[in-house]
Amino acid sequence: MTYSVTLSVQLTPDYQACPQAPVRLTMTVTAVTGFVDQGIFVFLKDTVTNVPYFSRVATTCDINTLSTNPGNATFRANAIDLVYLSATAADAGIVTIEADIQELCNQMNRLQTLATPTTVVITNA
Questions:
Q1: How many domains does the chain have?
Q2: Which of 107, 94, 122, 124 is closest to 35 using CA atoms?
Q3: Domain span at 13
Q4: Of the candidates 26, 31, 28, 58, which has an alpha carbon nearest to the alpha carbon of residue 42?
Q5: Which region among 32-41, 69-78, 114-123 has the lowest average model confidence (pLDDT)?
Q6: Of 22, 28, 9, 29, which Cα lies nearest the Cα of 90?
Q7: Is 16 contained in some domain?
Q8: Does residue 120 lie within any of the structural domains?
């Protein structure tokens, strides 16, 4: 099976024209192949305010252990909305997020293939 993610990406218009101004980035998963759901972004809730914040792109373990229930302290979601302090930071952030999504797809693909079976004999002593 092939794993893939399709994103809708939106940025502050003409953000490169004023490189020192803040930049808003939203990414929304619009389609997935192979995944059970579109929740590839992990959020944590602040322990004081209970406000969720983006933590990372999910790992293969996150996909299997975290739910998409926003009532949980840690959960997966299908969208992020971030503000970067500059155009340079936004560009670097986009590259990192997209690379992490690619790595997630690569790792999920690797999990689909098993090595040749080996025989293990277990006996009592």
A1: 1
A2: 107
A3: 4-110
A4: 58
A5: 114-123
A6: 22
A7: yes
A8: no
> What global pTM score does this model have?
0.89
Beta-bridge partners for 82: 25
Is 117 a domain residue? no
**Amino acid, res. 103:** E
- In 3D space, the residue among 27, 30, 7, 31 whose CA is nearest the CA of residue 84 turns out to be 27
DSSP letter (8 states) at residue 98: H
Confidence of residue 46 (pLDDT cuts 50, 70, 90): very high
Of 80, 78, 90, 79, the residue nearest 13 (C-alpha): 90
Residue 78 pLDDT greater than 90, yes or no: yes
Question: Looking at residue 115, what is its pLDDT?
Answer: 81
Does some domain include residue 47? yes
Alpha carbons 85 and 64: distance in angstroms, whole number: 33
